[in-house]
Design brief:
The structure is a homodimer of 225-residue chains. Chain A is mostly helical and 225 residues long. The first copy, chain A, has two domains: 5-76, Homeodomain-like (Arc Repressor Mutant, subunit A), CATH 1.10.10; 83-218, Tetracycline Repressor, domain 2 (Orthogonal Bundle), CATH 1.10.357.10. Chain A has helices at residues 5-13, 22-45, 52-58, 63-69, 83-93, 100-113, 123-133, 136-160, 168-194, 201-218. In chain A, helix 5 packs parallel to helix 8 (136-160). The longest helix of chain A has 27 residues, at 168-194. The A-B interface holds A 140, 143-144, 147, 166, 168-169, 171-172, 175-176, 178-180, 182-184, 186-187, 190, 207, 210-211, 213-220 and B 140, 143-144, 147, 166, 168-169, 171-172, 175-176, 178-180, 182-184, 186-187, 190, 207, 210-211, 213-220. The first copy, chain A, binds a DNA duplex (30 and 30 nucleotides) through residues 4, 6-7, 10, 19, 21-23, 26-27, 30, 51-53, 61-65, 67-68, 71-73.
Amino acid sequence: MPETDRQREGRQRAPSAKPDGLRERKKRETRQLISNIATKLFTERGFEHVTVDDVAAAANVSKMTVFNYFPRKEDLFFDRSDDVQQLLRDALDSRGRRSPVAALRALAHELVEQRHGFVKMTPGIAGFWKVVADSPALRARTREISEELERDLGRMLAASAGAPEGDPIARLVAALLVGAWRVAFRDALHRQRSARAAISPEVFLELLDHGFTAASAAARGSPYA
Amino acid sequence: MPETDRQREGRQRAPSAKPDGLRERKKRETRQLISNIATKLFTERGFEHVTVDDVAAAANVSKMTVFNYFPRKEDLFFDRSDDVQQLLRDALDSRGRRSPVAALRALAHELVEQRHGFVKMTPGIAGFWKVVADSPALRARTREISEELERDLGRMLAASAGAPEGDPIARLVAALLVGAWRVAFRDALHRQRSARAAISPEVFLELLDHGFTAASAAARGSPYA
DNA sequence: GTCTTAATTTGTACTCGGTATAAAATTGTG
DNA sequence: CACAATTTTATACCGAGTACAAATTAAGAC
């Protein structure tokens, strides 16, 4: 069966140009609606006490549609996670004559200074992570994301230093940095929960800096330090 | 990986006096049988292609019994994982005047020297981790175990230095060490897969030592270094 | 040995996340 | 309107894990 010109055209236009017709708009709206309702339900009742069917029903949509937009249930809560990777990539790309680790340290300080969302400790953020802490599945997903981040950062470091992709030292430095970030972040959350007030980022930065000096020490003699 | 008599004794006597009647013997046998058959099936067909029902049927036992001994399917493959914790605890308890990090470094070198099971790179071990690498669920469980280990080691470090239980520096040092171990171990597996021969542990130790110097650097000024 | 009691095993039925598939509804286009 | 492409839906299924009561089995007393 030979294909018509229109079929060929349609397939070619699909990947690049976004027509932004009624179809795409509705899709985005549906996706957003599902995500919002899911987040609301999860925060109210807890992740494990809300089924995907609940979410679908509350969004007036079938279960299949939910899984059509969000492959796993956890993705309903963790949206927008690869912004971090882009941030790291940019920092490494524009590192100039600084070492990769130094560039990342500068990025961290910038983020804290400008109260970026990743380090801001508002009650909303704390509530978000409370839901995560109460759910084994969400905690597992968090670990998975951490591991992906570690792997990606390792690749970026190796690329930035002109080293082979799997360079163990790059992987090591990435593991140390991501680990330090994790610990510092959890510590900040913990302090914010103990003391009722918002937490000053000095402690966070100090703990994180310990991680950076550790990474530098591990990378001594390599092109990453 | 055969366990020593001292380990088995210590673990069994721990809860209370257990009469070694027919009942307990049968239980141990059943448990062992299930575990063995499961391991065999998983290594043959891959973790995801064997259902718990398959394991139960092959062991002439009901599904409920399987879950009675092993709460989750992953536990059928990951048995005996808290031996590590005991090893770490012993090393820290007998550290004498050395710093906690120094004591752990000594432990690592000892383990490598005496070709302990945790660092031995036999084809069997490599096959084990191949099964893990091919299964998302087992990889997730690996991450979970890593996290538990990190938390426990953090507590042990704090206790060993007389610091409060949640001391962030202890958590940081633990995260750095566990991360370094993970990277070094994966690297060793990778090398063992590329080169066909058994891998000399020098590279593993060198990479791990980078992690220890990193941890020392992060702990400078604290009682851990 | 038998009887009683406690522990273990089993069958059954269920929940929930996730997939496969094909039919139905919706949208874009001529 | 008609037709093709895309999206949504219904339905049926699989596998991990749980709840619960019935059935089996070992331990201990007599």
